[in-house]
């Protein structure tokens, strides 16, 4: 399978297959009404385990849901029973929002067969597929730590890119946040964007019902944002969640090599010595 997305019908045919594991990655922004854990408890795809991106995270930093060490990640997903040889299907309760973050995290930690459910739980329900409230009780599974540094960028990498322009930095935040006309949802962050960055708000990659747009429409969206699909790209956003939506869209276009800036604007905009541009 080359497409990083699967349909509800595809997954429904494979429910109960021990070679297919389902992961609920539901999550909400700070200040939003909702809880991923509450959504999961209220009803989830049968057999799904809940991946809490705020819990499976680096606890040595105050930045939100940063990737933990490969060892800590392997232990956490092992407790969820996730196996590298299995096909993993990740979804969220909002359509396509936080599932791509977990898709990217798993790939960055050595899981190769990971897909996102197109349209998420709303599409699953709309097509009449079952949900359950029972909590999955997976057997603990030991996996050796692994890491793909090619899919992750840190602060020093972005400092270098801002200076060298060796890769296109594509920002998934809203246009208002990118230009600095709208405030950041997290307190203490400056407004604006990294010098040289391009803006493609993540919602422009989705249809009104929360599914990923066609390849042709995705190409048009990236082109309109001034992104050269043949050149190196790094995605960023507020805290590394919606940046993964851009990475997912790019993977659908065959660019499976695109890294995400893990700290994103929460890190960059919270520092005093990083350059910031306001305006288009």
Helical/strand content category: alpha/beta
Q: How large is the count of helical segments?
A: 10
Radius of gyration in whole Å, from Cα?
A: 18 Å
Distance between the termini: 38 Å
**Main pleated-sheet profile:** 5 strands, parallel
Q: Which percent bin holds the helix content?
A: 25-40%
Which overall shape is indicated by the principal axes computed on the Cα atoms? globular
Briefly note the CATH topology name of the largest domain: Oxidized Rhodanese, domain 1
Query: Domains counted in the coordinates: how many?
Result: 2
- Number-wise, the strands total 10
CATH architecture of the largest domain: 3-Layer(aba) Sandwich
Strand arrangement within the widest β-sheet reads: 1-5-4-2-3
Helices and strands, in N-to-C order? EHEHEHEHEHEHEHEHEHEH
Approximately what portion of the residues adopt beta-strand conformation?
Answer: 5-15%
